[in-house]
């Protein structure tokens, strides 16, 4: 019985049968390249370098083309590294003291609290993001946080100096205790009510533009 030849022609393809030839052994580089060779079997789940750039081909042919391209890139990389090693290094020239950035001597130790710095000091402020309480800062608006805290701390320092007698503005301020209202009296003529008072204040809803304490002074409109 004569065997019939196949109606199609088998095309012999040149395949990359040998492992990648590297200038350094695989053990020195920390990875095993003996698995990367020609005629890769479909179903291999390992990583194939540059395999994602070749598609529309059979698995073995795509792996062969990817490995050839990867080997060519390695040769170029090794040549570039050798070229960089041959470039002479230029010595660094020291910066002269005349061109150095002038450093201003510190008159206070680093980390000194802004409360202890004088009003004219440049570092008497709190940085943005500080969540602590800053006295006298509530009434300052429409400025950056460092500027607001600088002005608030300066005002606070002036008030403290005036109270302690360090700074004299006219006559020294004398602290006196506030006079308390007699028992059973709510609306006084000389002083107002404290904030958060939940009782009724006559004609309170028609008054605005001042603080609660100033608005409630002489709430009954009694003659003084």
Element pattern in H and E: HHHH
Mean pLDDT: 75
What is the subunit organization of this protein?
single chain
Helical coverage, percent range? 25-40%
Strand content: under 5%
Give a count of the beta strands, DSSP E runs of length 2 or more: 0
Largest sheet: none
**Distance, first to last CA:** 138 Å
| Unreliable runs | 10-31, 168-173
How would you sum up the global shape? elongated
Q: Cα-atom Rg, whole angstroms?
A: 43 Å
SS-derived structural category? mainly alpha
Q: Counting H and I runs of at least 4 residues, what is the number of helices?
A: 4
Features:
224 residues, 0% strand, elongated, mainly alpha
Overview of the molecule:
By secondary structure, the chain is mainly α. 25% of the residues lie in helices and 0% in strands. It is built from four helices and no strands. It has helices at residues 26-29, 59-86, 145-164, 212-215. The protein starts with 25 loop residues before the first helix and ends in a 9-residue tail after the last helix. Residues 10-31 and 168-173 have low confidence and may be disordered.
């Amino acid at each position: 019985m004569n065997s019939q030849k196949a109606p199609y022609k088998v095309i012999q393809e040149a395949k990359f049968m040998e492992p990648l030839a590297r200038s350094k052994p695989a053990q020195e580089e920390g990875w095993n390249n003996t698995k990367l060779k020609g005629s890769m079997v479909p179903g291999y789940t390992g990583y194939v370098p540059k395999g994602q750039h070749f598609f529309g081909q059979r698995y073995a042919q795509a792996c062969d083309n990817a490995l050839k391209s990867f080997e060519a890139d390695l040769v170029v990389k090794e040549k570039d590294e050798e070229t960089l090693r041959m470039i002479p290094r230029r010595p660094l020239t020291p910066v002269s003291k005349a061109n150095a950035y002038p450093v201003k001597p510190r008159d206070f130790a680093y980390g000194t609290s802004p409360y202890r710095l004088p009003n004219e000091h440049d570092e008497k402020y709190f940085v943005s993001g500080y969540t602590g309480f800053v006295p006298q800062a509530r009434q300052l608006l429409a400025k950056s946080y460092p500027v607001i805290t600088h002005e608030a701390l300066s005002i606070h320092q002036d008030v403290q100096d005036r109270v302690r007698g360090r700074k004299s503005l006219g006559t020294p301020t004398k602290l006196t205790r506030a006079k308390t209202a007699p028992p059973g009296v709510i609306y006084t003529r000389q002083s107002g009510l404290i904030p958060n008072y939940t009782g009724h204040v006559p004609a309170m809803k028609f008054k605005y533009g001042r603080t609660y304490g100033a608005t409630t002074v002489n709430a009954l409109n009694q003659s003084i």
